[in-house]
Structures are given as C-alpha cells and as structure tokens.
Here is the input.
Amino acid sequence: MAKLDGLEAVLDFLKGLQPKIAAQVAKKTLSLNIDPLPSDSKQLKGYPGYYRVDSGEYRIVYRFKPEEDLVEVILVGKRNDDEVYKKLERLLK
Here is the structure.
C-alpha cells in the first residue's frame, strides 16, 4: 500500500464542493494509495511520473514515485477547462 501525501491541497479544494461530490473526489483520491496506477489513470505528456485520474467532472493530478512507494497529490480541479494544467505548470516552474 502506497503512502499518500499532499492531502492538504485536496482538503482545501473539497471545502467548496457539495458534500456528495466532495465524498466522491475524496474516495477516488484515497483509493490511489491502494492502486496508484488504476486502469483509468493517464500519464501526463511532458511530465514524467505525473498522472491524472477523473472523478466525475473533477480531475486529480498526482505524482507516483514507485521507488518510495509514494503517491503525492498535486492538485484537484475541474475537467472541462485547462485551468488544472495551467495551475500545474505554474506550480512546477
């Protein structure tokens, strides 16, 4: 079972959501420590080791470090706009 890091970013994001949606995103995020690379995950182009999974209309971006058995959640955002990727680019620069 992988360690899960970066939950502060998820909790901050969840505060603004309806409880049912927040629970779905939280469940998907927590499931990453059991299976860091689920079948619906995709590796991000141009970002080695970074992946994304979707939970409803939200996207969870995370980094998986298999050598440390660590999943680091980077950010959560809406799927239907590119804001998630703009935020990711700003975070990693």
